[in-house]
Amino acid sequence: MKVAYLGPKGTFSEEAAKRYFNHDEVEFFMYDTIPDVIDAVGEGRVEKAIVPLENTIEGTINMTIDTLVSCEGLMIEGEFTLPVALHLLANKECKLSSVHEVWSISPILTQCRKYIRQRSVKSLQFDSSASAAQTLKSSGRLDVAAIGSESLASLLNLDIIDRNIQDNPNNQTRFIIISEHMNTDGDFKKTMFVITPDQEQPGVLSAILNVVTALNINLSWIESRPTAHQLGCYRFFLEANNNCSEMMIHKAKTILETLGHHVRILGRYNS
Ligand SMILES: O=C(O)C(=O)C[C@]1(C(=O)O)C=C[C@@H](O)C=C1
Fold it and tell me: Which residues belong to the signal peptide in this entry (predicted)?
């Protein structure tokens, strides 16, 4: 089986991929950006991909859900939660006091927002923690540090000059596993609905939630994202976590469609 994740070597995505797909028949493929990872499944170059969906501090990884929703045939088939401890990585001889800029992927910079403000350092975005660390290593610079994992530091032989710099010590990232197939057989604890209202009108979200409440569907996650057509128009991601049966999902979909909304089931899965 071919599986894609965000490279290069040493990313948190790699750690999640190797822990989740921990059997022999897996061939891993690394891509440079999260949209590229998702496109690899959409274009049939791999069968599955693992990408970050949300983080304790940063919240939703918009890059992930915006790309996922733009690829018609893709489904969520599983999820996996990884603890994320973030460290400041630097070239040998670099002193913490001489660091004036930190590099990493945007969600990581946000997870260390307090630290970055306290130290009054600049920040620069990269496509992943590992690409930031690799660039740092090859530059040899002593006034810049990268933010990433302990294993990334050992992989590139960088020093850890400050530890656990994330805003919350219990930081975690929830990854999703995506494929082109909907899980059908068996019991699935979670179901992801994407609801795009036909038109923006007062109380549209409340009307959707009324349907959910009436059907006794319990939500574990809700997110709204702009449809990108017009300012103020949103689509809603609703994750149900109480083992909705196929019949219940069908019922919810039918009622919401009757109310004029576009409904897509983005997958059924277990943790
Ligand atoms: O840059 C990496 O190491 C990644 O795997 C990406 C990513 C993310 O974008 O959320 C994945 C999990 C962690 O939250 C930090 C970074």
Answer: none
Whole-structure pTM value: 0.94
Domains of the chain as residue ranges with CATH:
2-83+172-179 (3.40.190.10), 87-162 (3.40.190.10), 190-269 (3.30.70.260)
13 lines ligand 1 (CB under 6 A): yes
Q: How far is the CA of 49 from the centre of ligand 1 (A)?
A: 14
- DSSP notation for 79-135: EEEEE---EEEE-TT--GGG--EEEEEHHHHHHTHHHHHHHT-EEEEESSHHHHHHH
- 64 touches ligand 1 (CB under 6 Å): no
Decide whether any atom of ligand 1 lies within 6 Å of the 55 Cβ.
Answer: yes
pLDDT tens digit sequence for 78-107: 999 999 999 999 999 999 999 999 999 999
> Looking at the predicted complex, does its ipTM rise above 0.85?
yes
